[in-house]
Specification:
With about 325 residues, the chain is an alpha/beta fold. It has a single domain (about 5-105, about 185-330), classed as P-loop containing nucleotide triphosphate hydrolases (Rossmann fold, 3-Layer(aba) Sandwich), CATH 3.40.50. Helices cover about 35% and strands about 25% of the residues. It contains 13 helices and 14 strands. The protein has helices at about 20-25, 65-70, 95-105, 110-115, 120-130, 140-150, 170-180, 200-215, 225-230, 250-255, 260-265, 270-275, 310, and strands at about 5-15, 25, 30-35, 35-50, 55, 80-85, 85-90, 105, 185-190, 220, 235-240, 245-250, 320, 325. It has an eight-stranded mixed beta sheet, with helices on both faces. Strands 4-1-6-7 form a four-stranded antiparallel beta sheet, with helices on one face. Strands 2-3 form a two-stranded antiparallel ribbon. Helix 8 links the parallel strand 9 (about 185-190) and strand 10. Helix 5 (about 120-130) packs parallel to helix 7, helix 6 (about 140-150) packs across helix 7 and helix 7 (about 170-180) packs parallel to helix 8. It starts with a strand and ends in an 8-residue tail after the last strand. Iron/sulfur cluster binds near residues 299, 305, 306, 315 and 328.
């Protein structure tokens, strides 16, 4: 049986070159024309099965949100393949993506920016049903919208209000109701609680997990918060500089991180690390620019274990035990 979502060797590059004359450079005494390309996502592969939660973690700017936006075709991929329920959607245009949007819905980080400020809450929630759902009467549409509103913890009195009349947590509840209105099979949640107060985060996370159990959909859960990802995910994928460097079952990775970057990431989160019994790993330096990806391993400039091979050969994601994959030459030597 095919996976619900399968992403294979996904690439996303952005041309951020300045104007034509600014691109001209003198190099070795000759005039050269140089493009500036951001390598945001580099050969990322993973899958999500029905009812599963895959957490994608990594520092800000590591490409995890770009992966999400590429999957839903807000950006056309520069390379690789995206399959939904076994169908290759990589080359789908806007029109062909309409039925796919019924299968995959998104909850964004900033609920205010993602809700149309001119629409009342009932119209915001029922809009996806009216456009991409099965044909339905206005009365049914309203009844379904009202039921969803109640399910996410809001009342009938909220239906005729506008987004600016709500708090951040309430707006995220509206975003969740809107995403669920077409009964998707996969919900991509892109940092859905990072913009909320800490006291509200747990409420929204619990609501999201209750709804998953009730409706049976899957999540691609994108976050930089390790305690959140540990709480919510069945498996996690760790990203660094646009590369997926380690994947596996969540608890297994938290208890036995293998890739040096995963160890460093866990070591840098005291709330998570203190409860684990892993050797801490401190790293220094900055993440290199995605305009110039280093040769060899993307993590080589910060990795305390880097050796000759790491500077020359890009490590591939390899399975060394069932369910686990890591991209690191050091693990070949062990
Ligand atoms: Fe470090 Fe080399 Fe492994 Fe990269 S491949 S993480 S540089 S040991």
């Amino acid at each position: 049986m095919s996976h619900l979502l399968e992403v294979c060797e996904l690439e996303q590059r952005f041309d951020v070159s300045p104007g034509f004359f600014d691109r001209l450079k003198i190099q070795d005494g000759r005039l050269r024309y140089k493009k500036s390309i951001v390598h945001a996502v580099n050969g990322v592969s993973f899958h999500i099965d029905r009812g599963e939660v895959l957490g994608l973690v990594g520092e800000s700017g590591c490409g995890k949100s770009t992966v999400a936006k590429t999957i839903i075709k807000l950006y056309d991929p520069s390379g690789g393949r995206i399959k939904v329920n076994g169908k290759d959607i990589t080359a789908y245009n806007y029109q062909k993506m309409v039925p796919v949007r019924k299968t995959i819905q998104v909850i964004f980080q900033d609920p205010y920016a993602s809700l149309n400020p001119r629409l009342k809450v009932m119209d915001i929630i029922t809009e996806p049903m009216a456009f991409i759902g099965a044909p339905i009467s206005k009365t049914e549409l309203r009844e379904k919208g009202m039921a969803l509103l109640k399910r996410v913890g809001l009342g009938e009195e909220h239906a005729s209000r506008y987004p600016h009349q709500f708090s951040g947590g309430q707006r995220q509840r509206i975003g969740i109701a809107r995403a669920l209105s077409v009964e998707p099979e996969l919900v991509i949640a892109d940092e859905p609680v990072s913009a909320l107060d800490v006291s509200i985060q747990a409420q929204i996370l619990n609501l999201m997990m209750d709804l998953k159990d009730e409706f049976g959909f899957s999540y691609l859960f994108i976050t930089h918060d390790l305690s959140v990802v540990r709480h919510i995910s069945d498996r996690i994928g760790v990203m660094y500089l646009g590369f997926l460097v380690e994947t596996g079952p969540t608890e297994d990775i938290f208890l036995r991180p293998k890739h040096p970057y995963t160890r460093a990431l866990l070591s840098a989160a005291p709330s998570v690390y203190e409860k684990l019994h892993i050797d801490p790993l401190a790293i220094t330096g900055e993440v290199p620019t995605a305009l110039e990806i280093p040769a060899g391993c993307s993590f080589q400039s910060r990795c305390p274990f880097a050796f000759d091979r790491c500077l020359q050969e890009r490590p591939r994601l390899v399975s060394r035990e069932p369910g686990r994959l890591e991209a690191c030459h050091l693990l070949d030597a062990q």
